[in-house]
UniProtKB/TrEMBL annotation:
Organism (species): Leishmania braziliensis
Name of the protein in its database record: Transcription modulator/accessory protein
Gene3D superfamilies reported in the protein's UniProt record: RuvA domain 2-like (1.10.10.650), Tex N-terminal region-like (1.10.3500.10), Tex RuvX-like domain-like (1.10.150.310), YqgF/RNase H-like domain (3.30.420.140)
InterPro entries xref list: HHH_9, Ribos_protein_bS1-like, RNaseH-like_sf, RuvA_2-like, Tex-like_dom_sf, Tex-like_HTH_dom_sf, Tex-like_N, Tex_YqgF
SMART domains listed in its UniProt record: YqgFc
One example GO MF annotation: mRNA binding
Length: 1072
């Protein structure tokens, strides 16, 4: 059958009325009511609602995948399905949402209930994190947002799951095993993958075949039993019926393929094996592959090939690939320069056939063991006449199984690529948020008068002089073509305006301007003048924005960018909020990640930083006020008007602003500061609702009833003045805070409950704010830019030379640092991932050498204390494990624990992690539990050492080490079991013990798996195997009647007698 290559997100529609066939691409689903893919989407596994759609190309045959027709596909049924899901029938009750969210995150139910209830009423995350710590259980902002996001996912998963269960039950397809599998799934993508073979497709080959009456004949082939009269009749008339039916053979093959794909155990094993063994291989294209590449000129395409040449003929294991590599491959594939293939493990087909024979034991009488369709004497055994009598049925079954295998592998590969993409995007978004957070919280450069310079060649160097508050004093333009004139201008402005800082943008010609300024500082012998090179990303965007036009209506556009460059050093937070976050250049692969998720996360960071620093109501600009969580543009406009009318002096005035509601005031009041308010608490982070508590604290202090009352004796005049006077006294407030600081937690709890009627968390917040009123959290952080007086030349650097620098951006593959050279350098080494934007590295940057592009190679040595805290004393050797790429999380591996509590990941962690994890297991809740294989190998080592003396233990332990090395080629890591190791087996000589081990390996691949049905007995005889002594041994007849394996869960209380397989022999799986 011819195969066609189409994108996974493409969809075919019915021909229009004009008779012409039209192919259109439907938009990606972006709302709960959107349509989710057509029939061809489902053949490769539809992605979850609101999850990012992959741009991966998947090659498949629509006519054979799940019986898909491919010629008459419509999306009408999918539209109905989406409407049914969101019809309101499958909504989860609020209380059940709270319970499931609490169980999944292992958080207290009352805290989750409070957070979700308050969020529904309009409470913001910063407000809850700061002023509702007692009710939320001290959750921080990240945990609060995780609760809200998980509640949304729980609701969506419930809708889809209930729809699927009702649909399956109405069609008679729901089994207890399938229901249990659906209820253990935690993500929409998992549900869609499991739902894919059960979708109703009116025009699919399987549906047409069932309508033609071929369904019972497919069932007769899968449950082959010639002794059954009814089955014998259907098998006899199979060939004639198929030839009488139009396209009957294809229809029958499609029915068999669909029935086999519906085996949950088969889908689980194939998916799990592919996730553990798959590799991504990459090839550099010699000719343009996509339209976007074909439209490029030959020179441009060659430049594109050179850009991605590093990835040519390389491959990565899914278990070890890094997030930035996934995003790079995705970008190269989208541009048409790379071809990325997903290759599953070599034993996937053998595992497929082994599981099929398990699930359909009757097929052992119809199919031979060998890959040849002609049975042999050993392979056919007593059923040789069956193979010849039903050769046509065997041919149909072969084709159906091959179709099912191809589809299952392709769907597993698609699921891997989809989950890798989503996980890599999440990490890229985290990098954006991390960099933006630390960039916004850089310390303002106070008491500095700045000359901001925007370098350029065509339009010259734009210069603007700014005072301490960022106001423009003068501006001019000079060119590098007339360097002497430029020197005179700069000297005149710096000396006349008494400027002490020069801020240069890192754009075109910044290197020449930097050399000029450094030479002027040295020539003029300016003692207090320093310069810094900062990022000018987003300055041009700001210069043409409406915000810049409103701020500088009479200033030319070319100078507005220079103003932005200078102000982002004076006050980074106030200036950078005016620039679109995607224009700041602080992340990686920002154009390849989900834009909606990225903007949502970055807006969260903006709100968090603004709430943490606070707003000076007397001077804050409109852009900063719009980022206060809980506020809206209409309220901001009214605040600006009231402030312009000089009627905004306190938080009470803020309450009386037009358009201000009580709920909005409650959310935003604590984030506004009023330095000149008659109420001293208005210049702190204390919320107005806590003012009465502060007054009661002052009254207790003035009466000598707070703590030991010793401090009151030092200032008796405060008691005479009354509590009101004492509240306005900064010294008194400090003494109150110090008294609270001396109190024990028990005393604080007693004071809060008996005398103040508040919770302990509120009292601790008041103590902190009274100790440090109006504290700017940026005061102890580094400022933007590396201020220096000279420029280093890369040619003068010597290997091993140490430099200092300021971190500009952090990624998953290194950090970009300004260390005094003309350009930022990429810093690598242990501890780089712990760096932060703006961090100053003092003599921690080691120059190594120049690469092939003459760029300096820099290594981080002697990282900061907090970055190196986890490293061992052995330096690089001890920290080598942390340098390995962190494994990307795949959604398909997440399984809900018992009663929906927590996640039980199916990923295979390192064996060394088990000792740390076992002590934290509580009941049936496990987080990333180790596989059964890891547990078995540890127990077998212990038992071998106990049972044998030093002479025999050496040989046994060496065999165990061989088993450990073969674990990577294991067909199934968790679900293939073998007979227990008895004392008699351990006492045998080395050769016999090894022979028994080899025999168990062969039996392992043939007998039932860990959770196979008890009656799944194989009818085919077991093959003979060779021992190490040269002889042959016959497996026992009851090899398939092994004891039932234990459950999959791993508990801390000991190991079961059942052990996982110890080896992965290459001939221990079936071949097709």
């Amino acid at each position: 059958m011819p195969k066609r290559t189409r994108k996974a997100s493409a969809a075919r529609k019915l021909p229009p009325a004009t008779g012409k066939r039209k192919y259109t691409r439907r938009a990606t689903a972006a709302a709960p009511t959107a349509v989710d893919g057509a029939i061809d989407d489902t053949t490769v596994g539809a992605a979850a609602y609101n999850s990012s759609k992959s741009a991966i190309e998947v090659t498949h045959d629509p006519s054979t995948q799940c019986g898909g027709d491919g010629a008459l596909s419509t999306d009408g049924h999918d539209t109905w399905e989406e409407e049914e899901v969101y019809s309101g029938r499958y909504e989860l009750s609020p209380e059940e949402t709270y319970r499931q969210t609490s169980a999944r995150l292992l958080l207290p139910l009352h805290a989750v209930r409070f957070v979700l209830t308050q969020a529904k009423e309009g409470a913001t995350v910063p407000f809850l994190a700061r002023y509702r710590q007692g009710e939320t259980g001290r959750m921080d902002e990240m945990q609060l947002r995780l609760v809200m996001d998980t509640a949304k996912e729980v609701t969506e998963v419930h809708r889809r799951r209930q729809f699927m269960l009702r649909s399956l039950e109405s069609r008679g397809l729901l089994t207890p095993a399938l229901q249990s599998a659906l209820e253990s799934m935690a993500h929409v993508s998992q549900l869609e993958d499991a739902w894919e073979p059960y979708k109703e497709r009116r025009t699919s080959l399987a549906s047409r075949g069932r309508a033609a009456g071929l369904g019972p004949y497919a069932e007769a082939l899968l449950h082959f039993n010639p002794e059954d009269p009814e089955c014998k009749v259907r098998l006899d008339e199979l060939s004639a019926l198929v030839h009488r039916t139009d396209d009957g053979e294809r229809l029958l093959i499609a029915i068999i393929a669909e029935d086999v794909q519906r085996s949950g155990e088969l889908r689980r094993r194939i998916g799990e094996y592919c996730r553990h063994t798959a590799r991504l291989s990459c090839t550099l294209m010699t000719k343009p592959r996509k339209k976007v590449a074909r439209e490029l000129q030959e020179e441009s395409f060659e430049a594109l090939r050179r850009h991605f040449a590093y990835y040519d003929k390389k491959s990565w294991s899914v278990q070890r690939i890094a997030a930035h590599v996934v995003l790079a491959l995705q970008r190269g594939e989208a541009k048409g320069a790379l071809k990325v293939d997903t290759e599953s493990g070599p034993k996937s087909h053998g595992l497929f056939m082994h599981t099929v024979r398990e699930q359909y034991p009757a097929l052992n009488r119809l199919l031979p063991l060998s890959s040849s369709s002609v049975p042999t004497a050993d392979g056919a055994g007593a059923y040789s006449h069956v193979f010849h009598a039903f050769s046509y049925g065997r041919k149909i079954v072969h084709a159906g199984l091959q179709t099912a295998y191809d589809h299952l592998v392709k769907q597993a590969q698609f699921s891997i690529r989809r989950d890798l993409k989503k996980s890599a995007e999440r990490e890229a978004i985290v990098v954006f948020a991390h960099n933006l957070h630390h960039m916004l919280l850089q310390r303002p450069l106070s008491r500095s008068r700045i000359l901001a310079m925007d370098p350029g060649l065509a339009n010259g160097v734009k210069c603007v002089a700014l005072d301490e508050h960022g106001a423009v004093e003068t501006f001019f333009t000079c060119t590098l073509m007339d360097e002497q004139k430029m020197r005179r201008y700069v000297i005149q402005v710096i000396e006349s305006k008494k400027l002490n800082k020069v801020v240069i943008g890192n754009g075109t010609a910044s290197g020449r301007v930097t050399d000029l300024i450094a030479d002027l500082i040295k020539q003029q012998k300016w003692e207090d003048v320093e310069f810094a090179v900062v990022s000018e990303a987003g300055a041009s965007v700001y210069s043409v924005s409406d915000i810049a036009k409103e701020e500088f209506p009479n200033l030319d556009v070319m100078y507005r960018g220079a103003v932005s460059i200078g102000r982002r050093v004076l006050d980074p937070l106030s200036e950078l909020v005016k620039i679109p976050v995607r224009s700041m250049g602080i992340g990686m692969y920002q154009h390849d990640v989900n834009e909606k998720e990225l903007m949502r996360e970055l807006n969260y960071v903006l709100e968090s930083c603004v709430a943490k620093v606070g707003i000076n109501a007397a001077s804050a600009n409109r852009c900063v006020m719009e980022k206060v969580p809980g506020i809206n543009k209409r309220v901001v406009d009214q605040i600006v008007l009231v402030r312009h009318a000089r009627k905004l002096h306190s938080r009470e005035d803020l309450r009386r602003v037009p358009a201000m509601t009580e709920s909005v005031y409650q959310q935003i009041a604590g984030f506004f500061r009023f330095p000149n308010s008659p109420e001293p608490l208005d210049n702190t982070s204390i919320h107005p609702e806590s003012y009465p508590v502060v007054r009661r604290l002052v009254m207790l202090y003035t009466a000598g009833q707070l703590g030991d009352g010793e401090m009151m004796a030092k200032k008796p005049e405060d008691a005479a003045g009354g509590a009101a006077t004492a509240l306005g006294n900064a010294y008194t407030r400090q003494q109150v805070a110090q008294q609270l600081e001396r109190m024990s937690p028990t005393q604080l709890a007693k004071l809060a409950s008996e005398k103040l009627s508040c919770n302990v968390e509120t009292l601790e917040l008041l103590r902190q704010e009274l100790l440090h009123p109006g504290l700017d959290p940026r005061a102890s952080l580094p400022h933007a830019g590396l201020l220096r007086r000279e420029v280093y030349d890369v040619k003068s650097l010597r290997p091993g030379q140490l430099l200092s620098g300021v971190v500009q951006s952090v990624t998953m593959f290194g950090a970009f640092v300004d260390c005094g050279l003309h350009d930022s350098v990429l810093l690598r080494g242990e501890g780089v991932d712990a760096l932060q934007v703006g961090m100053y590295l003092n003599q921690c940057i080691c120059f190594d050498s120049l690469d092939h592009l003459k760029r300096p190679r820099m290594l981080l040595v002697g990282p900061p204390a907090h970055a190196a805290s986890g490293a061992s004393a052995d330096g690089m050797k001890g920290g080598a494990s942390s340098a390995a790429p962190r494994r990307l999380r795949l959604e398909a591996e997440d399984v809900l624990g018992s009663n929906g509590r927590g996640f039980v990941s199916q990923a295979a962690p390192a064996a060394g992690l088990y000792d740390l994890q076992a002590s934290h297991v509580q009941g049936d809740i496990t987080a990333a539990a180790p596989t059964l294989t890891v547990r078995v190998m540890q127990e077998r080592k212990r038992r071998a050492g106990e049972a044998l003396g030093s002479a025999n233990s050496t040989s046994i332990l060496s065999s165990i080490k061989v088993e450990e090395r073969s674990q990577t080629n294991l067909t199934s890591r968790e679900h293939l079991s073998h007979s227990p190791v008895t004392k008699r087996a351990r006492a045998e000589p080395e050769a016999d013990a090894t022979a028994r081990h080899v025999q168990r390996c062969v039996e392992t691949a043939i007998v039932s798996s860990a959770d196979a049905r008890p009656h799944s007995t194989l009818y085919s005889p077991l093959p003979s195997i060779s021992t190490l002594k040269g002889g042959f041994t016959k497996p026992s007849a009851n090899a398939s009647q092994t004891s039932k394996p234990t459950a999959r869960g791993v508990h801390a209380g000991g190991v079961s007698d059942q052990h996982g397989t110890g080896g992965g022999s290459s001939d221990a799986v079936f071949s097709f």
